[in-house]
Amino acid sequence: MMEQAQISLSTEVKKSIDIHCKIESTDFESEAVYWYRQKRNQALEHLVYVISTTTAARNQVDGKNKIEARKDARMFTSTLTVNFVEKEDVGIYYCAGWSSRH
Fold first, then answer.
1. pTM for the full model?
2. pLDDT per residue over 34-61, tens digit each?
3. Strand partners, 48
4. Spacing of C-alpha 84 from chain mean position
């Protein structure tokens, strides 16, 4: 089960924003967490996925670490960080989990 508590987030342009996703899983350590974004009137877009609880997964845009995803093994959460926020980053962000055991 995945739970995203925050309904709406806002930040200033050029700043960073964190989006948290709580995950109820018996296999959290090896489960992949996928992050997606849906912009208005556009298809769902895959941003990044993270498996490791020790290393952040990154998606670079223009040579900058635009998107970062982390997993916190103690809190059973995944956090998506969007850096250098611009107007085009507006959208609905989703997390999804996938376990190799299913």
1. 0.84
2. 999 999 999 999 999 999 999 999 988 7
3. 35
4. 15
Q: Can you list the domains of the chain with their CATH numbers?
A: 2-98 (2.60.40.10)
Identify whether the C-beta of residue 1 lies closer than 8 Å to the C-beta of residue 9: no
- Quick check: 33 and 97 in contact, CB under 8 A? yes
Residues 21 and 34 sit within 8 Å (Cβ to Cβ): no
Spatial separation of the C-alpha atoms in residues 44 and 63, rounded to whole Å? 23
Contact 86, 12 (CB under 8 A): no
DSSP 54-90: SS-EEEEETTEEEEEEEEETTTTEEEEEE-S--GGG-
| 77-82 sheet: strands from edge to edge | 2-3, 17-23, 77-82, 64-72, 57-61
